[in-house]
């Protein structure tokens, strides 16, 4: 089993980099970043649409790719077979238009401090590289930062031989408390629709609920809640419960061939009790088509979001699920001078 990201994250160094391109002779953003932060296993390049990205590659060849301006992880290829080319892309992405990407792994931070507000994105400016770190080439880390009003947000992406982690630290430097709805959502690729499932949620309460709104989500909140059309052979198939209706997962394996959009967590009213059941800290995806499985571990978040597109063909030919830790039903409250941390780890032992 891979060593997990310690939740005592390194203190950031106060050296932000913002690149100016006011002259023709100035180096590109990726060149400047590579000169300042590049090292063995950490390489800054540019995508065809001039978006700076950083590629991390550890000793066993496992790699990931992170878009810097929007903090979106668009590729994670862990080594899952012993053969030389035994790498498998596990993230699902689609072109989003005008240089953007849908899918991958992304962070959502929405300010819901106003009771009448549906939430507005906290990070309205682009991320900048704050620091990088490495332990030989078996552990690599990139640290992004973004100042959003009275909030300082740090986003850390780490890669290890058998795992990857994404973590967020939000520090409230303002004078008022801030209520945040947040999630780290991963779009995971599956070989087939029929063989998709997760294991480890039995006994956990859940309700039908839309995902948090984001710029990278493949299914919008409205699309995720739209009922799946009934086909010729859909008799007896599972349908989504009505929003607000709570159910306890009674199956050992949660089958995801049909369309679902759920939050697994303790109902808000249950959390008022001294003792209540919390969702599991980890669960595992199962892809019968590839024979691969990945554990998803949550830290600092209260909920687990899980969705699948069902029979719809509008999202590409491959199948995927969207899942990850979240705090959706009860916002995270960050008082002045305080900070909050949340993280997701994806690990495997397929080798």
TrEMBL record:
<dbReference type="GO" id="GO:0005737">
    <property type="term" value="C:cytoplasm"/>
</dbReference>
<dbReference type="InterPro" id="IPR014718">
    <property type="entry name" value="GH-type_carb-bd"/>
</dbReference>
<dbReference type="InterPro" id="IPR011013">
    <property type="entry name" value="Gal_mutarotase_sf_dom"/>
</dbReference>
<dbReference type="GO" id="GO:0005975">
    <property type="term" value="P:carbohydrate metabolic process"/>
</dbReference>
<dbReference type="GO" id="GO:0047938">
    <property type="term" value="F:glucose-6-phosphate 1-epimerase activity"/>
</dbReference>
<dbReference type="GO" id="GO:0030246">
    <property type="term" value="F:carbohydrate binding"/>
</dbReference>
<protein>
    <submittedName>
        <fullName>Photosynthetic NDH subunit of subcomplex B 2, chloroplastic</fullName>
    </submittedName>
</protein>
């Amino acid at each position: 089993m891979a060593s997990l990201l310690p939740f005592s994250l390194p203190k950031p160094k106060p050296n932000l980099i913002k690149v100016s391109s006011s002259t023709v002779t100035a180096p590109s953003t990726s060149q400047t970043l590579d000169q300042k932060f590049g090292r063995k296993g950490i390489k800054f390049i540019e995508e065809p649409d001039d978006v700076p990205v950083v590629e991390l590659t550890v000793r066993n060849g496992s790699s990931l790719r992170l878009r810097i301006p929007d903090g979106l992880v668009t590729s994670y290829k862990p080594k899952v077979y012993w053969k030389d080319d035994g790498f498998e892309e596990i993230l699902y992405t689609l072109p989003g238009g005008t240089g953007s990407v849908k899918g991958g792994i992304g962070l959502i931070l929405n300010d819901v401090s106003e009771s009448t507000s549906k939430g507005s994105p906290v990070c309205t400016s682009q991320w900048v590289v704050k620091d990088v770190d490495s332990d030989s080439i078996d552990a690599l880390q990139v640290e992004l930062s973004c100042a959003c009003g009275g909030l300082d947000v740090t986003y850390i992406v780490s890669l290890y031989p058998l795992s990857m982690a994404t973590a967020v630290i939000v520090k409230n430097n303002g004078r008022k408390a801030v209520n945040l709805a947040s999630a780290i959502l991963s779009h995971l690729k599956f070989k087939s629709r029929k063989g998709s499932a997760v294991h480890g949620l039995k006994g956990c309460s859940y309700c039908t609920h839309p995902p948090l709104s984001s710029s990278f989500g493949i299914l919008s909140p409205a699309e995720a809640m739209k009922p799946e059309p009934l086909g010729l052979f859909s008799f007896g198939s599972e349908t989504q419960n009505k929003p607000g209706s709570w159910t306890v997962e009674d199956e050992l394996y949660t089958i995801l061939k049909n369309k679902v959009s759920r939050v697994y967590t303790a109902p808000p009213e249950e959390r008022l009790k001294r003792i209540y059941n919390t969702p599991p800290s980890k669960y595992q995806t199962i892809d019968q088509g590839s024979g691969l499985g990945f554990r998803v571990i949550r830290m600092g978040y209260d909920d687990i979001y899980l969705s699948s597109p069902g029979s719809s063909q509008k999202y590409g030919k491959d199948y995927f699920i969207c899942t990850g830790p979240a705090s959706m039903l009860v916002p995270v409250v960050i008082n002045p001078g305080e900070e909050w941390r949340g993280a997701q780890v994806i690990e495997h032992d397929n080798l």
